[in-house]
Amino acid sequence: MTTAKPFLMFQGGTAQAALDLYFATFPDSRMVRVEHYAEGQGGPAGTIKVATFTLCGREFMCSDSPIKHGFTFTPSSSTFVDFDSAAELERVFAVLSEGGQVLMPLGNYGFSKRFGWLNDRFGVSWQLNLAA
């Protein structure tokens, strides 16, 4: 069976810290499998070579790139999360925006009663929405 999963490429060995934040923030989120770089394998020992994990029950993949790139995450590719509760939306927005960049503060933008867009401190872009 052919499958597709979002893939997050971190730089500077920050993948595990990002995953720790996401697992503590979102329900039904956990590590599925992880492979770390060993000494002499091309990346800093102990960083994530490749991982599969779930966020809100959806599978993602990630890695810590040992190669320095002239690019990083961009808001044009983001993860959209619908919330049933305004309180939960506001909690997650506060957690993810800490140390990050708010692109659109929580508000009513016409297409949603309560919506916000941000880049977290790792550069990952999130669109957070109160489901109608």
UniProtKB/TrEMBL annotation:
Pfam families, A to Z: 3-dmu-9_3-mt
InterPro entries: 3_dmu_93_MTrfase (IPR009725), Glyas_Bleomycin-R_OHBP_Dase (IPR029068), PhnB-like (IPR028973)
Domain PhnB-like: 5-128
TM segment ranges: none
Domain of life from the UniProt record: Bacteria
Family annotation (Gene3D superfamilies): 3.30.720.100, 3.30.720.110
This protein's name: VOC family protein
Species of origin: Steroidobacter flavus
